[in-house]
Amino acid sequence: MLDQPPDQIPVAQRTNPERSFREEVRSLRLGNGEVFRGEGILAVTKAILQAGVGYVGGYQGAPVSHLVDVLVESQDLLDELGVHLETCTNEASAAALLGASINYPIRGCVTWKSIVGTNVAADALSNLASPGVIGGALIVVGEDYGEGASVIQERTHAYALKSSVWLMDPRPNLPTMVRCTELAFELSEATNTPVMMDLRIRACHVTGEFVARDNKAPAISRNNRLAEPAAHNYDRISHPPSTYAHEKIKVEVRQPAAQRFIVEHGLNEFLPGERSDLGIIVQGGITNVTMRGLDRLELDGRIPMLVLNVTHPLVPDQIVDFCKGKRAVLIVEEGAPDYIEQAIHAILRKRDVDTKIYGKDVLPMAGEYTAEVMTEGLLKFFAQSANDIDLTKPRERFEAARAGRAEAQRILGGPLPLRPPGFCVGCPERPVFSAIKLLEREVGKVHISSDIGCHSFATLAPFNLGNSILGFGMSLAAAGAVAPVMQKRTISVMGDGGFWHNGLLSGVASSMFNRGDRVLVIMQNGYTSATGAQFIPNTSGNRRDGETTSDIAATLKAMGVKWLRTIRTYNVATMLNGLREAVNTKEGGLKVIVADGECQLARQRRVRPEIAAQLKRGERVVRTRFGVDDEICTGDHSCIRLSGCPSLVVKPSPDPLRSDPVAHVNNGCVGCGLCGEVADAAVLCPSFYKADIVQNASWWDRLKWRMRSAMIGAMAGA
Amino acid sequence: MKPTTILIGALGGDGGGVLCDWIVTAAQAQGLGVQATQIPGVAQRTGATTYYLEVMPGPRPAVLALNPAIGEVDVALATELLEAGRMIFNGFVSPERTTLIASTHRVLAIGERAAMGDGSFDVGRLLRAVKERSRAQILFDMDQAAEEAGSVINAVLLGALAGSGRLPIPDASFEAAIREGGKSVDANLAGFVFGRGHARGELEQAVREHQKRQAAAVGVEDLIERARKTYPAKSLDMVEEGIRRLASYQDRRYATLYLDRLDNVRPDLLRDVARHLAVRMSFEDVIRVAAAKTSRERMARVRAEVRAKPHEPVELTEHFKPGIEEICAMLPPRLARRILAWARRTGRLGKVYFSMHVRTTTVWGFARLRLLAGLRWWRPRTYRYVEEQAEIERWLADVRAATPISVELAREIVESARLIKGYGDTHARGLANYRRIAAEVIAPALMGRMTPRAAADAVASARVAALADPDGESLSRTLAAIASASRPLSQAAE
Lengths: 718, 494
What we know:
Shape of chain B: elongated
Number of domains of chain B: 4
Order of helices and strands of chain B: EHEEEHEHHEHHHHHHHHHHEHHEHHHHHH
CATH class of the largest domain in chain B: Alpha Beta
Low-confidence stretches of chain A: 1-6
Oligomer: heterodimer
Strand order of the largest sheet of chain B: 2-3-1-4-5-6
Radius of gyration of chain B: 29 Å
Distance between the termini of chain A: 49 Å
Distance between the termini of chain B: 81 Å
C-alpha cells in the first residue's frame, strides 16, 4: 500500500545520526575544580549529575530539550554512573517517572516545557505531591514566556501553589543555577516534596562558567539494584483516606520544613543598599533586568533587594524582616496573576506591617518585563515612593531613547514585513498544505483543526490555513463538535509527535468511539521535528537497539480505522486525490491519511556527509534541483503563495519591459520537487524546470551528453 | 566598568548562534567577562533570531543583563538589511552610541515574496534609517562577500566586527575561536579575512548590477530609425526594445503594426504605452514558451544558475500542463470557439489537462519543442492571436478616449495592462480582473460619470486592489466603494 519511491527511506529506518553534542557531553564529565563553560541548561544538566541523580526523564520542548538530548548522547557516562534515562512519550509519563522517589531514596529529575507540559503532567503531579517523596525529586520546567515563546502565556506558579510543590526561580547566573539545582534535591528530601525549577528562555541559553565538582554515582541504581521492593505502606498511596492526611501534612509539616530549609541554606539572597527606607523583592529569574534597570537610574547598589530564588513557599519571617521599617517596597513579579504580591500583602497585613507595597500598579500585570518595561516601572515606583531621589537625567535619557525610536519608525514609515517561522526548504509537510489549498479551490473553505508542531506554521503566511489549536495531539478531538454541524467534513492535522503524545487516545480512540465522521491527516516525518528532531515510537534508530517500536498505520488498523491511506507527501496530485476522496466519500467514520515524508532537516544531516563521501570517492552522484526560467515567469508569484519554500525567492525581472520581480530558486534548493509538483497540480506556468546535475559523470554520461549537446546546438534557436 | 553591548539580528540558518559562540570564545580567551543569551526561534531554518551579548572591558563581570535596552546597544550586527531595519525600528540602535554592521543584501520576507506584483519593502527607507539612526556604519553586501570568499555570512560578519575595532579583542583571538569551533575552519577564516578587509576599507566590493537582457533581432534597423525620427527621446529605450522584441517574437510586419499603433499615442504617454503594448503584443503562448526553452543562450544560463561545473552533464526536465484552453489557443478561431463551447457545456473546461514532462536535454525532447517554436508563422491564424488583438485594440481605444478627458486617467488605464500576465489560471484571473475594472470603472469614467480626477484615482485604486489578493475580495470591495461614491455625481448629472 505504501507508495515508496527509491529515494524515500521507510519511516522505520529513519535515523538522525549527525545530530551530535560531542562538546556538551565532554562538559558533563568535568571533575573537581575544573571550569565548566556553556549554557544555563547544560549547567543544570551537569548539576543533577553532581547531585547523584539516579534517573532522568522528560519530554522535549524549548527551551529545555537540551537536557535530555545531551544525556541521550551521553549513554556511556550514564552507564558508568548507573543513571537510568527515559525519553518519555509525554509529560504525564515523565511526571509519573518520579513515582520511583515515593518509595525509594533515589534522586530523580524530569524536564518539560511549561505551561503546556505541566498541564499534561498535572494528574501525575498531583498524585506525586500528595504522598510526597523520600528521594529528591526535581522537575526542571522551561518557562516559555515572553519574547520567543511558542505557547500560551500562563504561569507555572499556579501548579506549585495548588499541589504544594516548591518552586525555584534561580537568578540566571551559572553558579546560582547550579547551587539551586543541587540544593533542590536536598530541599525535596528534607520536606518530602517535589521541587520545580523555573528556567526562562534567556536563562536556559545564558552563557557563563562555574567550577565543577565530580559526578556522583547514585547509591541505588541500574548498576546497584535493590533485592526487594519497598514494604507495603498505605500512607504512600494517593488514595483515601491517606489523601486526607497528606493534605494536612503538606501545610502542617512540609511547608514549615521548607521555609526553615530556605532560611538555613540562604537560598534567597539579600543584597544590601544604603536606602534602608526602600526595598525591592524580586523573582530570582528577573533579577538581572531589575539590577540593570537600577543601574540605568544610577541607583545600582543603593536599594536593598531580596532575591527570591525560591518563589514558593515564601518565608513570612523573611518578608516581614525585609519590609519592616521601610517606607515602600516594590515587588517585581512577571506575569499574571500577581500571586507573590497578593501573598506578601497578606503576610504584612497579618503581622501589622504598614510598609506600602508597589507592584502591578507601577509595572504591567501582563507581559514580559523587558528592559524598557522595567525602566518605566522603576521610574514610576521611585516617583511615587521617594521623590527625594532626583531622576531627571535618567528620565530624560529614557525619554530621548523613546523619542529616537519614534523618529526611526517615522523614517521607516510603518511596520516592517514580518518574518514568521515557516517550513524549512524541502519540508515534507509543505506539500500537504499546498494540496489542501488546491482542495479548497475545488470544494471551498473547510474547517481545519490545527495542532502543535512544525505543521502549525501553516496557520501563518502564505498558507493561512487553520481555525484552531487546542494543544498537542488535540486536533482531532478539537473537531469533535465542529464536524457534526458542518456541511463539509473537517480536516484535522496532526504530527506523528502529537499522535504518540496524545492524539492516539484523545483523538483517534475518542473519534472511533463516537463514530466521528472526520478527516485526520497525520504528518509522518519520523521525529518531533519542531523541538530538534527527537526520536518517537515510529522511528527507528531508537537510541537503545535501533528497532522501531510502533507503526502508525498498523496501530490505526488495530484500532479499527477502515479508511486509511499512506501517501508520500511530495506527490501533490496524489495527496490532492486522497484529500478529495476523504472529504467527499460516502463512507462514514474516521478517514486517516498518513502523510509520509522524512523531516528534511534530519534527512539533510544524514545525506550530506554521505554524498560528500561519495563524491570524494569519485562515485557518480546526481544532484537534483529546480529552477525558474526568468524569461518565462511573469511575476505573479502564485507558486510562492502555494509553497512558501524559503528557497523560492524573487529577483528583478531580466525583461527591460517588465517591472514585477520574477520567481527564482536559490541555491538552498534541496530538489524536493514541490515547486514542479505544484506548478503541475495547480496548472500554474511552464517556467519551472528540473535540473539533474551529474557529478563524477561516467564516460557514457559524458559521451551521451556531448553527442546530444552537439545535435541540440545545431537545432537551437536565437 | 560598563560592558560593551552587542545585539545580533539574523535569519534562521545564518549561523547567528555560531557567531555568538565565536565572540564569547574570543572574549574568554582574552580574559574578558562575557555573557550571551539568545532568542533562537524554533528548530526550523526560517524566521528571525536574535542574540544579545555583553562584553566587559576587564575580567569578572558584575551582573550582566539578559535583554537589550532601547538606545543602549554599542554594536548592532545584522546578516540582512531588513533585520538591521528591525533593530532600528525597535529602538535598539541609536545615533549617539551604536555602530551598525550590516549586510546590505535583502532576503525578502514571505509577505514580500507572495505579493502578486512587487511587494518588497522600500530599500531607500531602510538605508535612510540605517544612515540617520546609527552612529557609524559598516555596510556591504556580505552575502556576496561570503560567496566571493567561498565562505558563509556569519564568518564575514565576525570579520567585520573585528575590523570595526569596537571590541578589545585582537584578530588572533577571533581566528583562534574559529579554529576552536573546528568546523569548516578554512572557509570560515577566509570569510573572516574578507569581512575584516571590507570593514577596514581595504577591500572594494564591485556592485553587482542586475542585467536586463535585450531581445535580439536583425533587419529592424529601419524601424528603429523610424521610431527615432518620430518619438521623443525619453521613450526610445522602450520603443526600440519593443521593436526588437516583436520582430523576434513574430516578424517584421508585427513590429511595424506595433509602431502604427504607437503613432496615435500622445507623446507624454508614449513611454508607458510602448512598454505595456510590447508586453501585451508578445503574449505568452506555447510558441513563445517553446522558443524561450530552446534558445541558444538558455542552456548556458541554466548551467550557471544551477552551478554545474564545466565538465558536468546537466539533464533538464520541463513541466508543462496544457489544458483545453491552451490547445484551443493554437487552433483557428471558429474551430476553437466550437470546442471551447463544448468543453464549457460538458464541464470539461478547467478540468481536463495533459501533463507533460519534456526532457529538453534529449534530442527528441528538444526537437519537439523546437518544432513547436517553429510554428510562429501559424500564430496570426490562431484563436488566441485574434482574441489578444481585439483586447489590445479595446484597451488602446479606452486610452485614446481618456486622453482628452485627463492624461492622468489615460495613464492609469495604460498602467492597468499590467494586471494581464501569466498562464492558465493566473492569466484568466488577471484578464477577468481587468475586464471588471474596464466595465465597472473605466467605462463609467469615459461616460463622464465621475470627475476626471476621481476617475483616475478609481482606476488606480482598483488596480492596486486587484493585486492585493488572488481571491478578488479586495477588488470587489473597492469596486463597490467606487460605485457608491460615483452614484451621487451620476444622479446629479441626470
